[in-house]
Amino acid sequence: MDKTGIIKPVLDANYPMISHGKGIYLYDENGKRYIDGSSGAVTANIGHGVDEIADAMHEQAMQVAFVYRSHFTSLPAEKLAKKLARITPGDLNWTFFVNSGSEATETALKVAIQYFQEQGIHTKTKILSRWTSYHGITLGALSMSGHHKRRERFSALLEDFPAAPAPYCYQCPLKNTYPGCGLECAGELERAIEQEGPENIAAFIFEPIIGAAGGAIVPPPGYYEKVKEICDKYQILTIADEVMTGMGRTGKMFAIDHWGIEPDIMTLGKGLSAGYTPMAATVVSDRIINVIRKGSKVVMSGHTFSANPLSAAACCSVMEYMDQQNLVQNAGEQGERLLNGLKELEQKYPFVGNVRGKGLLCGLELVNDAVNHTPFSFIHRVGEKLISICFDKGLIIYPAFGGVTGYEGDSVLISPPLVITSFQVYELIRILDE
Ligand code: PLP
């Protein structure tokens, strides 16, 4: 065993050495080919090995790769912020650049609290979220996350934030059935607010479609309308965490566009750079920025690499490539094909309990009993086995379990790059069927 090296996800596991990638495919050093059926961690949206992005990065690196944000601004960062203002809904016109989705959601948390402080309201310091959810691995982001497995080791360090049940119809946490339930899960949001005291809650953070913690959980119709009404009633800001769902993944530029929501803050990551460089963003509305501008004038956060020109140039180039290749539209069309193929597996195999999703963010939930939706016992680790068998067969899919209790659930995410073709969708389904 090596005595030095990188700390791997599982310390002594044998990970293949990557050689290169092209489109939806990855190749290891032995020449084995994998379909990147999860775009890594739902990130490689435009596929691998795109020359245009490498060229844009080379050009920018030759000009200047790094400047510190309090010394200079840069053309690529300014251009990227303008591009985001153009495509985000409502008055989300101001971007704070960071390096990871976790930093983006923590920045959103800080901006929301600061917005009230600037107006002399100092009690609104808590963030309401949902259980099940995932908003990042750093302590503030984890405090907002309803993800048992990722929290339990550090629970003593996490903030005591309130949470409402997730709109998870297939395994309803309230044991209800839609539409007879009257959207009680949204109603629970109001109960959580009243219990905590609305004067203590700055914002509600939500993944429009719940990803890593539950496997592409899409809320039922009417849910977000009710949520918005409740948040407005109690002067609670809304933070749409689009780190996974944003940048075309679900067949619209942002998942909230499926419901016409205009949040106060939006977070982006993953597909923003499509994995070509670390980059994430907290996009903030005019209304919030105007309050800070009238007050301290300083958004109190920042990182050494925030808004660095090299990453910004890569992201601009990714967005231009997406435009030229019509990738948002392709995500919608191929997503329908993928979902239909997965639904055939749901019909064919009793242990495929539920297939769901939008665009190219699809979830597949394995169960022991499809009639009662009973999960397999944790000790069987069925989801992990499926992921491992697929990997051996050259198909990469992504775990989405551990959120509810930490010891349940066998959901996986299937989320290939948005450049996938019809033929490749069938190839993916065929391997999964095997
Ligand atoms: N928010 C959501 C919705 C995510 O899915 C993730 C990562 O999976 C994060 C935040 C955290 O992003 P990162 O891993 O880049 O810190």
**Percent strand:** 15-25%
Residue share in helices?
Answer: 25-40%
The CATH topology assignment of the largest domain is Aspartate Aminotransferase, domain 2
- What is the distance, rounded to the nearest whole angstrom, between the alpha carbons of the first and last residues? 34 Å
Give the CATH class of the largest domain. Answer: Alpha Beta
Mean pLDDT: 96
Determine the CATH superfamily of the largest domain.
Answer: Type I PLP-dependent aspartate aminotransferase-like (Major domain)
Task: Label the structural class.
Answer: alpha/beta
Order of helices and strands: EEEHHHEHEHHEHEHEEEHHHEEHEEH
The shape is globular
- Just name the CATH architecture of the largest domain: 3-Layer(aba) Sandwich
- Give the strand order, joined by hyphens, for the main sheet: 4-10-9-8-7-5-6
Query: How many domains, in number, for the residues?
Result: 2
Gyration radius, in Å: 21 Å
